[in-house]
UniProtKB/TrEMBL annotation:
<feature type="domain" description="VOC">
    <location>
        <begin position="4"/>
        <end position="128"/>
    </location>
</feature>
<dbReference type="InterPro" id="IPR029068">
    <property type="entry name" value="Glyas_Bleomycin-R_OHBP_Dase"/>
</dbReference>
<dbReference type="Pfam" id="PF00903">
    <property type="entry name" value="Glyoxalase"/>
</dbReference>
<dbReference type="InterPro" id="IPR004360">
    <property type="entry name" value="Glyas_Fos-R_dOase_dom"/>
</dbReference>
<dbReference type="InterPro" id="IPR037523">
    <property type="entry name" value="VOC_core"/>
</dbReference>
<protein>
    <submittedName>
        <fullName>VOC family protein</fullName>
    </submittedName>
</protein>
Amino acid sequence: METKMIWANLAVKDLEITAKFYSDLGFKPNGTFNADLVSFLFGKDNFIIHFFLAKQFKNAARLENAALNTGTEIIFSLSADSREEVDLWLERVKKAGATIYAEAEDFDKGYTFGFSDPDGHKFNVLYWPSY
């Protein structure tokens, strides 16, 4: 058996805010948005993240949604080609309204910072010279 694709499904409070946030960051919409979800493509391989309204997500998963203000379910890493690109991402996500949970810093051989989207989903932007 072979897995053909993998994507992420996340819960959000407001689809319009989510759509604006990820559009402002320059991510490409995945199809047409509807009343239940918005979806975006990430990276050159077009990794898909679907964002569902929290109530629908909880009903579909039959699980409680994570308390993102006190923790996280995953951190998505976005690669950058240089330290300067990391700094440009930092400016861009601040302008879009992200919360910075980790300021830009050297990390081992790389350079990184972390941010949360309007619903608390965590991302980091990382420059690693060997990637």
